[in-house]
């Protein structure tokens, strides 16, 4: 944290304040102190088939329940209810891509598409509580499939299309998914990435899968064995289905989706979210933070395969009746102006992206954004990792022309919704996430749970439950409890942060063994187990190494088998292997062969030592080191 940025205050533009839903930021935070009252009011914006009996049930901590006994349906609220209003013919989704192809769906069209798919899923035998795995590129069918699942009460688990066979298989197997919906292929930087082939390979070892549905998305020929009655093309499947489908009356606490994310140890965790609280939390934070109005054109560049896409490309915007853009492709292809061109073309008003993309695009110079009319922009957002003040200021000046407040939103897959973030009417400091949102009680504490002094580093905790919080880790209650029991009573986010003299929060990074690469979470354990599954690798330890664009890359320390030497050839093979097991996001920047790894007496690899040595830092406490 640099002193000068702590003292730099950027006041909100008058125009923004005039229009804002929340005029007085501090007052709203005050109002949010009574969390039950605050979230109860927000819940009134939705259709409930039956009203809840109780806002928050905290009788069985940390298994909190929200809107107890309330009955609703998130798809009904995101789609159905708009077709009886003036939004009926409003564009709900604009799909565009690096090929600059376009497809638009109005709320009414989305309604009929979702209903057809929901009926098709029912016909395939999918019932309330069954899991459907979605392994799809950024395309309208992904949104339609998610909403169709939610409409009939099936639980969706979206697997990011950049993940590969190993990761896909693990997720299908753990969730016992009955149906997998995929596409022939996706494209990135002009390259075709075949998805159906990955599904074939993964599903071969997954007996739970009864049906595979394939979207013909990229016009790539695929093998499909229609004769077995097990594989269908998406278009054929929904052909002739009824375009009406009544919404399943879901309990507020019924599961909505499982989304896997990396943790510090072991396998990725299946974060489970439920219907009612998620709906309320996600849409009301989006409305506050991006100040959503009916005339907005909203563009979030995340992938729907991650939580940002779930909450703030699909559910949040549709629950507010907004037009949301889904973009398929890279930020710099066919040229580094593609996003700026999209902003100009559609007149985007709210733009939400990640620091890694901004750092990358900034490198190409100001001439790309300067070529396009970005004057429709009103509010900008960032998420995924800490944003350095220099990149923040570039975003503010060059993209926002010093007119658009930047919402630096801190949150996690587990939190489901924004947690620490300014509102558009807040005075900003470049690089700070400002303060916990109204209705959120967050703090920076030491390991005993006591607040630290201003300027001191500590752990980010949430002291009270919030509606969109995860309800458990799928099939692993113990790991869920760890979040709330490491510092008893508080939710431990495993991030390190500080508060400054004005009580503004600054997030510094993870406190666990999770590496943040271009805003993607990768667990050291996942990468290590992928490395060890290579036949020539005996032992492996990985650390995150700072990288100016990606935030971090992986450095792997390897002990090899039978006197093997780590030459260029073997390095390539190992990299390919990790790519196959996890996916191209697990970028291995460097590899080093070592004779042995530093370990504790109990045999745990001390990554801290490796990291300190690598980065030329103090080794710290080495008393537990075995050798
Ligand atoms: C939404 C999302 C969560 C981790 C989180 C933290 C980092 C996210 C941030 C941020 C600093 C921000 N993170 N937003 N760090 N400032 N505005 O990214 O979810 O993929 O689960 O990652 O990302 O370290 O713990 P997820």
From TrEMBL:
Domain Acetyl-coenzyme A synthetase N-terminal residues, every copy: 33-78
EC number per UniProt: 6.2.1.1
GO biological process: acetyl-CoA biosynthetic process from acetate; carbon fixation by 3-hydroxypropionate cycle
Record Pfam families: ACAS_N (PF16177), AMP-binding (PF00501), AMP-binding_C (PF13193)
Keywords assigned by UniProt, alphabetized: ATP-binding, Ligase, Nucleotide-binding
Nucleotide-binding as UniProt keyword: yes
CDD domains membership: ACS (cd05966)
Domain AMP-dependent synthetase/ligase residue range list: 86-472
GO CC terms: cytosol
Gene3D superfamilies the record matches: 3.30.300.30, N-terminal domain of ligase-like
Gene Ontology molecular function terms on file: 3-hydroxypropionyl-CoA synthetase activity; acetate-CoA ligase activity; AMP binding; ATP binding
Domain AMP-binding enzyme C-terminal positions: 526-604
Domain of life: Archaea
Family named by the database record: Belongs to the ATP-dependent AMP-binding enzyme family.
The protein, known as: Acetate--CoA ligase
Record organism: Methanothermus fervidus (strain ATCC 43054 / DSM 2088 / JCM 10308 / V24 S)
């Amino acid at each position: 944290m640099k002193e000068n940025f702590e003292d730099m205050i950027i006041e909100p533009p008058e125009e923004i304040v005039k229009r804002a839903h929340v005029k007085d930021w501090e007052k709203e935070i005050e109002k949010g102190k009574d969390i039950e009252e605050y979230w109860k009011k927000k819940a009134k914006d939705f259709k409930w088939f039956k009203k809840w009996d109780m806002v928050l049930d905290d009788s069985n901590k940390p298994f909190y329940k929200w809107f107890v006994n309330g009955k609703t349906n998130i798809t009904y609220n995101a789609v159905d209810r708009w077709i009886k209003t003036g939004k009926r013919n409003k564009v709900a989704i604009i799909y565009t891509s690096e090929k600059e192809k376009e497809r638009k769906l109005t709320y009414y069209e989305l309604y009929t598409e979702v209903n057809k798919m929901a009926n098709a899923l029912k016909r395939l035998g999918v019932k309330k509580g069954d899991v459907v795995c979605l392994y799809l590129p950024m395309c309208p069918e992904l949104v339609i499939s998610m909403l169709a699942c939610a409409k009939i009460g099936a639980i969706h688990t979206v697997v990011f299309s950049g993940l590969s066979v190993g990761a896909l298989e693990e997720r299908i197997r753990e969730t016992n998914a009955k149906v997998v919906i995929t596409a022939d292929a996706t494209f990135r930087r002009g390259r075709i990435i075949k998805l159906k082939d990955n599904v074939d390979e993964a599903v071969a070892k997954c007996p739970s899968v009864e049906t595979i549905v394939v979207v013909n998305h990229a016009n790539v020929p695929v093998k499909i064995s229609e004769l077995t009655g097990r594989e269908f093309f998406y278009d054929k499947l929904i052909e002739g289905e009824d375009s009406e489908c009544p919404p399943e009356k879901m309990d507020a606490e019924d599961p909505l989706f499982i989304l896997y994310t990396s943790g510090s140890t072991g396998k990725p965790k299946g974060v489970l979210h439920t219907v009612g609280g998620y709906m309320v939390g996600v849409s009301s934070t989006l409305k506050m933070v991006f100040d959503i109005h009916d005339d907005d054109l909203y563009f979030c560049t995340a992938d729907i395969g991650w939580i940002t896409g779930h909450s703030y490309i699909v559910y949040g915007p549709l629950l507010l009746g907004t037009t949301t853009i889904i973009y398929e492709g890279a930020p710099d292809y066919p040229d580094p102006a593609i996003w700026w061109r999209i902003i100009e073309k559609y007149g985007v008003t709210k733009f939400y992206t990640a620091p890694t993309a901004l750092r990358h695009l900034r490198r190409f110079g100001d001439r790309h954004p300067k070529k396009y009319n970005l004057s429709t922009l009103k509010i900008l957002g960032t998420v995924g990792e800490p944003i350095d003040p220099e990149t923040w200021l570039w975003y503010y000046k060059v993209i926002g022309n010093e007119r658009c407040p930047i919402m630096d939103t801190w949150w996690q897959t587990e939190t489901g919704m924004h947690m620490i973030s300014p509102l558009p009417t807040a005075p900003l400091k470049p690089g700070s996430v400002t303060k916990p949102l109204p209705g959120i009680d967050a703090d920076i504490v030491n390991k005993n749970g006591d607040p630290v002094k201003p300027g001191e580093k500590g752990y980010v905790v949430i002291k009270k439950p919030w509606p969109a919080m995860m309800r458990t880790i799928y099939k692993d209650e113990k790991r869920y409890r760890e979040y709330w029991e490491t510092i008893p009573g508080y939710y431990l986010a495993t991030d390190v942060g500080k508060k400054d003299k004005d009580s503004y929060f600054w997030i510094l990074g993870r406190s666990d063994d999770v590496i943040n690469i271009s805003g993607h979470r990768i667990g050291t354990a996942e990468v290590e187990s992928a490395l060890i599954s290579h036949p020539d690798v005996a032992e492996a330890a990985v650390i995150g190494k700072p990288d100016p664009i990606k935030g971090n890359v992986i450095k792997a320390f390897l002990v090899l088998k039978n006197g093997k030497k780590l030459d260029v050839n073997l390095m390539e093979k190992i990299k390919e292997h990790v790519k196959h097991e996890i996916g191209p996001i697990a970028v291995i920047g460097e590899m080093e062969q070592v004779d042995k790894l530093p370990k504790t007496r109990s045999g745990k690899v001390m990554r801290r030592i490796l990291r300190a040595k690598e980065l030329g830092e103090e080794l710290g406490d080495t008393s537990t080191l075995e050798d």
